[in-house]
Amino acid sequence: MPHDRPLDLTLYGATGFTGTLTAEYLARNAPAGCRWAIAGRDDKKLAALRDRLAAIDPACAELPIRTADSADPASLRALAAETRVLITTVGPYLQYGAPLVAACAEQGTDYLDLAGEPEFVDRMYVAHHAEAAESGARLVHACGFDAIPHDLGVYATVARLPRDVPIRVEGVVRAGGTISGGTFASTLNAVSRLRASRDAAKARHRDEPRPEGRRIRLNDGKPRRDRATGLWLVPLPTIDPQIVGRSAAALDAYGPEFSYTHYAGVRRLPVAVGSAAGLAGLVALAHIPPARRLLQSRLAPGEGPNEERRAKAWFVARFTGEGGGERVVTEVRGGDPGYSETAKMLAESALCLAFDDLPETSGQVTTAVAMGDALIGRLRRNGIGFRHPGEEPDTTEHKADGADGAAGPAAASGSDA
């Protein structure tokens, strides 16, 4: 990582819904001496945001502003060349994201996004992993609710199991929240391109080395009722299992055989059935252009839940791991999953890459591989609970309310154009 650059980190897409939340978090929590900037297409909107940030921290009145556009690769290269870490919330990433990944891979700049789009992540691996590995750039996708609680929750579970034995982990996530226009646009885009997503996965499979002497399995799972918790478990088709699988492939601690199954948990059967039917309907409508345009018009990018609604949102992700005759449970808990906590996760990931003592990695890597314990420590200190039942809870841990909920599009992290 070049340390002689004028900026430690730059937030691109700062005036979008999640971008603004991330900027506000950095204004409150960036350490003294952190050299950071806000970036986007509209310098007037950026100036207005800077005034807003200055009300949080007067030092932000001098915050640098940078203009760049995803349609102008030269502006993105200039953006990447002057910063050590570049955060982007500009999506849908399939539509807007590739030029910035290319710029960071070329310039040796660490890159973070909120991409919950498997096709985008796979295409970026094929196109830019090798160059990033050579330049020293760390390309870290899915640095929000997708997929940090799941990737690091499994990582924390595996760390408490015996090494060199087969390991099996089941994840169950519950959440209550609402979505922004950017997230909804990303979700619609992803589910309308299932065939293209399969093609991208095959291309990556051809290029990506397999771990020697080890086996990684991601199980689809079947809907069922969990007797221990009373929850109905519904397979959850998000990017999270893929991220977990890539961490498992990269880290020997996950054992010679590792399997992971991913569920949403709901308390009432009608909610489980309705969630499955709603997802199936969304997939069907997303493939019909007029219907897709109508759905997109219902919630425009840049819109999202207000502070009051975010304050009522919550998530709980529970991971049960078994290996070598031992059983470990890890719970990851927090507040508003899609926005307030996603902004926190994204910002803390950037600060972690910029300032913490981390393993030497490069190329496309996961949060567990690139940041692991250091990022868990940061998140625990800032209100996201990582605990094992039977231990004393984190003093900052959020308590999930008793409302029914499932992690579907309402809790999936997305992005803001």
What's the total count of β strands? 15
Query: Unreliable runs, pLDDT <50, ≥5 residues?
Result: 282-286, 395-417
In helices, the fraction of residues equals 40-55%
What is the strand content? 15-25%
Mean pLDDT equals: 86
Q: Assign an overall shape.
A: globular
Q: What is the CA-atom radius of gyration, in angstroms?
A: 20 Å
Query: What separation lies between the terminal Cα atoms?
Result: 28 Å
> What count of helical segments does DSSP give?
16
What can be said about the biggest beta sheet? 8 strands, mixed
* Helical/strand content category: alpha/beta
* Oligomeric description of these chains: single chain
Structure description:
The protein is α/β, with parallel strands linked by helices and 417 residues long. Helices cover 43% and strands 19% of the residues. It has 16 helices and 15 strands. It has helices at 17-29, 43-56, 73-81, 93-96, 98-107, 118-135, 148-158, 181-191, 194-207, 240-250, 269-286, 289-298, 307-312, 340-355, 367-370, 372-381, and strands spanning 7-12, 36-40, 65-67, 83-88, 110-112, 138-140, 167-176, 215-219, 224-225, 232-235, 257-266, 314-323, 326-334, 363-364, 385-387. The strands form two sheets. Strands 7, 8, 9, 10, 11, 12, 13 and 15 form an eight-stranded mixed β-sheet that branches. Helix 6 (118-135) runs parallel beside helix 9 (194-207) and helix 8 (181-191) packs antiparallel against helix 12 (289-298). Mean pLDDT is 86; it is low at 282-286 and 395-417.
